């Protein structure tokens, strides 16, 4: 069973597929959100959840005080499940599911994001992640945090200019990477 861990929707159950999606475990989600609270990255954040699967990460962020979330998954079946979970958590007014690829969504989106989750299937290559991150950087706010989940046997994803690694932590078979926008990029965005 997957559920919202804390906040306004605490305890609400989330639907998960029988197979085909690897939801982030409660233990890993709790660790991620403890770190995000430490970084003060949740309050009123504009959240983008890429490769959303069940939507658990984006919905947990909303439950803990984020303002808005877009949950993206290329699978229509996953987006149907995400919509079901949006209804179950009563976040219909602030959460949207988008059935498209992560890269297509980022390329076309006009929003600026404060918090981004990337939890791709393990078979997604680091090259694909690097391309996505490079496309994402200009759409990040000055204080943005990006959270990337990968199989711990994989190399660390290469971060483009505009993102700095804050920390990385292993949880079982998963490594979670945290990155943010470096100060010089923030000032360049303000000037440009």
UniProtKB/TrEMBL annotation:
The keyword Methyltransferase applies. CDD domains: AdoMet_MTases. The keyword Methyltransferase applies. SUPFAM superfamilies: S-adenosyl-L-methionine-dependent methyltransferases (SSF53335). Keywords: Methyltransferase, Transferase. GO terms for biological process: rRNA methylation. GO terms for molecular function: methyltransferase activity; nucleic acid binding. Pfam families: Cons_hypoth95. This is 16S rRNA (Guanine(966)-N(2))-methyltransferase RsmD. It comes from Winkia neuii.
């Amino acid at each position: 069973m997957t559920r919202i861990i804390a906040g306004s929707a605490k305890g609400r159950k989330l639907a998960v597929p029988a197979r085909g999606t690897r939801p982030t475990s409660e233990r890993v989600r709790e660790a991620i959100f403890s770190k995000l609270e430490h970084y003060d990255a949740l309050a009123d954040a504009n959240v983008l959840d890429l490769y959303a699967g069940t939507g658990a990460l984006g919905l947990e962020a909303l439950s803990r005080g984020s303002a808005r979330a877009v949950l993206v998954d290329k699978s229509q079946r996953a987006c149907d499940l995400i919509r079901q979970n949006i209804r179950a958590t009563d976040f219909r007014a602030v959460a949207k599911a988008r059935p498209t690829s992560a890269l297509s969504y980022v390329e076309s989106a006009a929003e600026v994001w404060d918090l981004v989750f990337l939890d791709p299937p393990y078979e997604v290559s680091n090259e694909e992640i690097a391309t996505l991150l490079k496309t994402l950087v200009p759409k990040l706010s000055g204080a943005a945090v990006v959270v990337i989940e990968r199989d711990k046997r994989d190399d660390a994803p290469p971060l483009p200019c505009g993102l700095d690694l804050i920390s990385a932590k292993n949880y079982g078979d998963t490594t979670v990477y945290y990155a943010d926008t470096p100060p010089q990029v923030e000032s360049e965005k303000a000037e440009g």
